[in-house]
UniProtKB/TrEMBL annotation, chain A:
Protein name, as recorded: ABC transporter ATP-binding protein
Stretches assigned to the ABC transporter domain: 4-238
Swiss-Prot/TrEMBL keywords: ATP-binding, Cell membrane, Membrane, Nucleotide-binding, Translocase, Transport
Organism: Sphaerochaeta halotolerans
Pfam family, one: TOBE_2
Automatic annotation (TrEMBL), chain B:
Domain ABC transmembrane type-1: start-end pairs: 73-283, 370-561
Keywords: Cell membrane, Membrane, Transmembrane, Transmembrane helix, Transport
Transmembrane segments: 21-46, 77-99, 111-131, 156-176, 211-233, 268-289, 310-335, 374-396, 408-427, 433-450, 493-521, 541-561
One record GO biological process: transmembrane transport
Record InterPro entries: MetI-like, MetI-like_sf
Originating species: Sphaerochaeta halotolerans
Membrane topology: Multi-pass membrane protein
UniProt superkingdom: Bacteria
Family, per entry: Belongs to the binding-protein-dependent transport system permease family. CysTW subfamily.
Gene Ontology CC annotation, any one: plasma membrane
Compartments, as annotated in UniProt: Cell membrane
Lineage summary: Bacteria, Pseudomonadati, Spirochaetota, Spirochaetia, Spirochaetales
Record protein name field: Iron ABC transporter permease
């Protein structure tokens, strides 16, 4: 358990700056997610926390200890951190027990105590019956749990997870997500989790840090990030969204292509971009905010995914599944907008472009 | 539920036997190897036990009660064992320093150590017998002056000298094997150890080293076999000091020429073959299965260890090592080639001459030997690559039955000591069984292929297995025939490997000594043999000029290969 402080950290590999002026504070016992497209610098940040990379500039504190600065650098083995790697990194020449016992052996603990602690943690990750197996006899999910047990066994101050679920199949990923969250709550440990999967970020985190091109875009709770994104990049990266250029005047937003209007109580004036999440638009029989013609619909089981022409532009609407049977292509509908966000129009599409 | 009846789809009604054209390839390759490798080797063993037509251990009794032979056996085992131990002790830290740390100039060092692998070992022997000559060796004299010793500190014509030269020329085998294994290792395995609380040193000891153990053992066995079946080094370094090895004894016995001499050679060769095959079996078929597969995830960037304040001292140490083991010997040989009197200093103008260089480009016998070597190496490399490519395709792309048989035979061939291959060919291919190719270049080419084909095969196999079959399938689905797909997709992708494979067979054949020494005739002398005779009987400077020329060719080809394959391959 530990408070983490990252002060103005910049990292460059040669001339390439992969992370610039990163400032953050992680509260003790919280679950933090670094979210961003691949190549955004999130893994680099994690590796600097672990001590595998040295920041080019800036300081990092874990608890009260300064682990990285101009003057000091604490190597990974003396940072008291647990880490789960994307490839699991379970040692093939050791059994499950030996793998998990390794951090304790490094602490020079007695045999009895090591056995007790290893058994405890293997119980938590449901691997008790596999202690004497070697990794090649385990499935991917089991190897992943060995890695998790190894990261947790020494009761570290901090647990780092580097896209630990990306190599698992969809079903297993789902259940591991809850398991990791459960274990974190049980142990009350600080966790920093790196992922590009917004679903993982949403379900597990107390705090999400969205990163793009080496810069923090937003820090907030999952609801903050989703409902009140600070810019178009965040809005687009976290979830699905329609962006419509509009003009704000006299408490009204006028969409530039369709000339339809909706009321607006905010204080942005002039050229703006309106962001509407597809699930915040509903089909209504009367008194809609917009009208449009159904162009196409896709039945996905849990939802009906529609494209609607509101006059000069298409918007995506995610409607209830039963609407699939009643709506016909070519018909006109009234649409109610439950929630939308407004961004200043910067005139380019820089923010919406996601480099992957 | 209905039970589906499965029937091989290619078998039509009433057709009992289906001929797969791939079998034809296998039959041709197996046939070739059977006639020129397996049967001669079997005949060799047979001859050792049935020397006079009936079973007898007489030959064994005679050979192994003769003290000189016994000491040769002991010398071989001792020198090979120590070379193996020292070779690995040198190769592992070097591979680690060059591959996994921030040592200065590690790329340069890597190339330097790997290139040694392609240099004929007898060049090392020539250099060291000059440098550490007990009376006039310049290195000996320098050390004597430096430490005010009453006599020269080293005598190269000793067991220690033999082990030293064997080690410095065979450790690259271990270096390459261990380096490759280190590159393949997922760096997060080591990072996981660091984060678990282990420092660099503990990580090296508890994670890196045990994970590498199978590769290290394989590398050690490789050095053991190479050193144990070496002929060039022991014949130049060992024989003058009365240190005989099994290989030099075998060749001595063959040179005696009598029936008894041949039988004695055979009997010794059987011992060498047995040792080599047991080791080969251990390393390929037992250790091979224990190799840990460490498929790395995304982060394949190797984990570079910061040496900290050890960075400079270690770089200096590696530089000194490179200087002593690689640079000084090569420079010595090069300088010898332009020295009039080897006893005098090279640094005086009247002692410098280019007449030996002129000689190697004008003397008829040298030119004809060079031509012989070129012809046989080019033929062996081309045929060898053809077989390698076909084998690679069979092994990687098909599951035709029996593809393992020629693979096994080629592996055994390359693991058999050169002396044994040559002797077996002499015994069986001089007309006894209807084939008489003794005294021709053909027998040379066949021997080269048996010994060195595997280098090409491994290169092509690994290149082909990295190409997803779906690339070929995508071409076929786009309308290209199988042959066109091969030509348009597969061939361009494996072209660098084919070029590399060709040179990997060509180079050792071009300067081959051991087999040539047994198989040559007056018209089929090779470059390696020519050099050897000049070194031992005529004129060391001429031999040095030849060796230097060979070094230039090796470096030149390495450079060319690097250019041709876009940096993907160099030897």
């Amino acid at each position: 358990m530990s408070r983490i402080l990252i002060k103005d950290v910049t990292k460059a590999f040669g001339d390439v700056v992969v992370l610039s002026h990163f400032d953050a504070e992680f509260v003790d016992g919280s679950f933090i997610t670094l979210l961003g497209p691949s190549g955004c610098g999130k893994t680099t940040m994690l590796r600097m926390l672990a001590g595998f990379e040295k920041p080019t500039m800036g300081e990092i504190y874990i608890g009260d200890q300064e682990v990285s600065s101009e003057k000091n650098f604490v190597p990974p083995e003396r940072r008291d951190i647990g880490m789960v790697f994307q490839s699991y990194a379970v040692w093939p020449h050791m059994t499950v027990f030996e793998n998990v016992a390794y951090p304790l052996k490094m602490k020079k603990m007695g045999k009895q105590e090591i056995k007790k602690l290893v058994d405890e943690i293997l119980e938590i990750v449901h691997l008790s019956q596999y202690t004497q197996r070697v990794p090649s006899q385990l499935s991917g999910g089991q190897q992943q749990r060995v890695a998790l047990a190894r990261a947790l066994v020494a009761k570290p101050k901090l647990l780092l997870l580097d896209e630990p679920l990306s190599n698992l199949d969809a079903k297993l990923r789902d259940s591991m997500r809850f398991e990791i969250k459960e274990i974190q709550k049980q142990l009350g440990i600080t966790v920093v989790y790196v992922t590009h999967d917004q679903l993982e970020a949403m379900t597990m985190s107390d705090q999400v840090i969205v990163i793009n091109k080496g810069c923090i875009q937003q820090v907030g709770t999952p609801t903050d990030i989703y409902r009140h994104p600070e810019n178009q990049f965040v809005a687009d990266f976290v979830g699905k969204i329609n962006f419509l250029p509009a003009e704000s005047k006299n408490q009204k937003l006028t969409f530039k292509h369709s000339n339809q209007q909706i009321p607006y109580g905010g204080d942005l004036i002039g050229d703006v971009v309106v962001g509407i999440r597809p699930e915040n638009i509903r089909f209504v029989s009367m008194k809609g905010d917009l009208t449009g013609t159904l162009v196409s619909k896709f039945y996905l089981g849990d939802v009906n995914d529609c494209r609607i022409d509101i006059g000069g532009e298409l918007i995506r609407v995610i409607a209830e599944p039963k609407s699939f049977d009643t709506c016909k292509e070519g018909e006109t509908f009234n649409l109610r907008i439950d929630e939308f966000m407004v961004f200043k129009d910067s005139g380019d599409d820089f923010h919406t472009k996601i480099l992957t | 539920m209905q039970v589906l009846k499965l029937r091989p789809p290619l078998l039509r009604e009433g057709q009992k036997w289906y001929f797969d054209p791939k079998w034809l390839i296998i039959i041709v390759i197996v046939g070739f190897l059977l006639i020129f490798q397996v049967l001669p080797l079997i005949y060799l063993v047979y001859r050792a036990f049935f020397s006079e037509g009936k079973f007898s251990l007489q030959a064994f009794k005679r050979v192994y009660t003769y003290p000189l032979n016994w000491s040769a056996l002991v010398n071989t085992i001792v020198s090979a064992t120590f070379s193996m131990i020292f070779g690995v002790l040198i190769a592992f830290p070097l591979a680690w320093l060059v591959g996994r740390t921030n040592l200065y100039g590690k790329k340069f060092f890597r190339t330097l150590f790997v290139v040694t692998y392609m240099v004929p070992p007898y060049v090392g022997a020539m250099a060291w017998m000059r440098l550490l000559n007990p009376t006039v060796g310049p290195m000996n004299m320098a050390l004597q002056k430096l430490f005010h010793l009453s006599q020269a500190p080293f005598n190269i014509y000793s067991m220690g000298g033999l082990i030293w030269v064997l080690t410095t020329f065979y450790y690259p085998y271990a270096f390459i094997t261990i380096s490759r294994a280190m590159e393949k290792m997922d760096p997060s395995l080591e990072e996981a150890s660091r984060i678990s609380g282990a420092n660099s040193w503990t990580t090296l000891r508890t994670i890196t080293l045990p994970m590498m153990l199978p590769s290290i053992v394989a590398a050690a066995l490789l050095v053991f076999i190479a050193a144990g079946s070496a002929y060039g080094i022991p014949s130049i370094i060992g024989v003058p000091g009365q240190i005989h090895t099994v290989t030099t004894r075998i060749i001595d016995f063959v040179y005696i020429g009598s029936q008894e001499g041949l039988t004695d050679a055979t009997t010794l060769a059987v011992f060498l073959m047995l040792v080599a095959n047991i080791v080969l079996y251990l390393s390929t078929f037992t250790l091979g299965k224990r190799q840990y597969i460490t498929v790395s995830g995304k982060s394949t960037r190797p984990n570079i260890v910061d040496l900290g304040r050890w960075r400079l001292p270690l770089t200096v140490a590696v530089t000194l090592f490179a200087l002593v083991v690689v640079i000084i010997p090569f420079v010595t040989v090069a300088l010898s080639s332009i020295t009039v009197n080897l006893g005098n200093s090279i640094f005086s103008l009247e002692n410098i001459t280019f007449r030996y260089w002129e000689r190697i480009f004008t003397r008829k016998s040298i030119l004809s030997s060079a031509r012989n070597s070129l012809v046989s190496a080019v033929t062996a490399a081309t045929l060898g690559l053809l077989v390698s490519s076909m084998m690679a395709y069979l092994l990687v792309r098909t599951d035709v039955k029996g593809k393992k048989i020629p693979d096994f035979m080629i592996t055994v061939g390359s693991g058999t000591p050169s002396v044994v291959i040559a002797l077996a060919l002499i015994m069986s291919m001089s007309g006894k069984f209807g084939i008489n190719i003794y005294n021709t270049l053909t027998i040379m080419i066949i021997a080269y292929m048996i010994k060195y084909m595997m280098m090409g095969m491994r290169t092509v196999v690994s290149a082909l297995s990295q190409i997803s079959p779906s690339l070929e399938e995508a071409s076929q689905i786009s309308g290209a025939s199988w042959l066109k797909s091969m030509k348009n997709v597969t061939l361009p992708l494996i072209a660098p490997a084919l070029v590399a494979g060709w040179f990997l067979i060509f180079m050792p054949c071009f300067y081959e000594l051991t087999m040539s020494t047994l198989l040559y005739s007056t018209n089929t002398k090779t470059l390696g043999y020519e050099l050897y005779t000049y070194q031992t009987y005529h004129n060391q400077q001429t031999a040095s000029a030849l060796a230097t020329a060979i070094l230039f060719i090796v470096f030149g080809i390495n450079w060319l290969l690097n250019k041709l394959t876009g940096g993907e391959f160099s030897i």
